[in-house]
Amino acid sequence: MYAQEVKSTGAAPKSLADMSAEERAFQERIDADIKIEPKDFMPEGYRKTLIRQISQHAHSEIVGQLPEGNWITRAPTLERKMILLAKVQDEAGHGLYLYCAAETLGVSRDEMTEQLLSGKAKYSSIFNYPTLTWADIGAIGWLVDGAAIMNQVPLQRCSYGPYARAMVRICKEESFHQRQGYAIMMKLARGTDAQREMAQDALDRWWWPSLMMFGPSDGDSVHSAQSMAWKIKQNSNDELRQKFVNETVPQAEYLGLKVPDPDLRWNEAKQGYDFGPIDWNEFHEVLKGNGPCNAERMAARRKAWEDGRWFRDGLTAHARKAPARKMAAE
Ligand code: FAQ
């Protein structure tokens, strides 16, 4: 049974006094902002946390192609079709850089794929929602890529070199994606009544799931304390979510659209918006496999894996035979 439930238990980071000499030297490198590279010493927990986060990030990019891929054949113009094709291809590229970054930690691409297909590894909750209209493609670019950038810009400064470097290019591409989404929303918001309604409906459906992308609130985030001590994460889930709300609400206002939150209001004292409670029950249900599209997304990934088997087998057979051929030729 496919399941993505939050079930980890967080442990408080070790103090310097409780660390071995090797661990202390490692933590001091982190504290001095020196990047950790694949062959350097690293505590097992650091390696495992990175494999978990980077592989889940990679799976999200790959599964994340599916909701938008659904609209490539139906994009309203040739230009929109070309832009959407390029965006979806970018997401595939992001998945590949990230799988490569995770491989430097000693896990194979096949192992990571098996973890995804068995339900052991998660992918972002957001990709379990359907894309019902063309406005959803605008909302994904604007909100989903917007939330992704908010979370990923600090990852460019992550302590693990290969992950940090992969994020530089990814962030550049994600900002283009965000702009193309906002451009679609702008076109619809300035269009006919029906187009405006479509844009509002997409915002209504994607707003709350986008806020859930940042993960559980800080009190329930099992990994944040250790990941922040290791400078894998630079900000807490709630900090980034708040930043996203602060930047996105004025963008909705500019479009003339209404954020679907009756509790949303500017708080002068905190210089940010207060917003209503997130439905964490919905988040947990999606993680358990009960979101609107979980089964469909996993079926698509399983089919892709099975359909590609003959090709992987061919490549492996070729790689096996190549040294013998080379020796025979010498
Ligand atoms: N969905 O203790 P925390 C994109 C899990 S890329 C599913 O707070 P952590 C590009 C979490 O894994 C979007 N699961 O965990 C694009 C953990 O479970 P575990 C993906 C979630 O790692 C755009 C448990 O809950 N981005 O969108 C979610 O410290 C458009 C406890 O949570 C990344 O992966 C969730 N939303 O913080 C593509 C960025 N939230 O592993 C196509 C890198 C939490 O113990 C189209 N990742 N969980 O079983 C991160 O920054 C972090 O991993 C967080 C979670 C912030 C996602």
Give the end-to-end Cα distance, rounded to a whole number of Å: 52 Å
Low-confidence stretches: 1-9
The number of distinct β-strands equals 2
Rg over CA atoms: 21 Å
Total helical elements: 13
Derived from helix and strand composition plus strand pairing, the structural class reads: mainly alpha
Instruction: Categorize the overall geometry.
Output: globular
- Strand content is under 5%
H/E element string? HHHHHHHHHHEEHHH
Distinct small-molecule ligands in the complex: Phenylacetyl coenzyme A
Give the overall average pLDDT.
94
Q: Helicity range of the residues?
A: 55-70%
Strand order of the largest sheet: 1-2
Q: How would a crystallographer describe the biggest sheet?
A: 2 strands, antiparallel
Overview of this structure, please?
- The chain has 13 helices and two strands; from the N terminus they run ααααααααααββααα.
- The protein has helices spanning about 20-30, 45-65, 65-70, 80-105, 110-120, 135-150, 160-190, 195-210, 225-230, 235-255, 280-290, 295-305, 310-330, and strands at about 265, 270-275.
- The longest helix has 29 residues, at about 160-190.
- The model is unreliable at about 1-10 (pLDDT under 50).
- It binds Phenylacetyl coenzyme A (FAQ).
- Phenylacetyl coenzyme A binds near residues 144, 216 and 287.
Give the topology.
Elements: H1 21-31, H2 44-63, H3 65-69, H4 78-103, H5 109-118, H6 134-152, H7 161-189, H8 193-212, H9 224-229, H10 237-255, E1 265-267, E2 272-274, H11 280-290, H12 294-307, H13 309-329
Antiparallel strand pairs: 1-2
Helix pairs in contact: 2-4, 4-7, 6-7, 6-8, 6-10
The structure holds Phenylacetyl coenzyme A (FAQ).
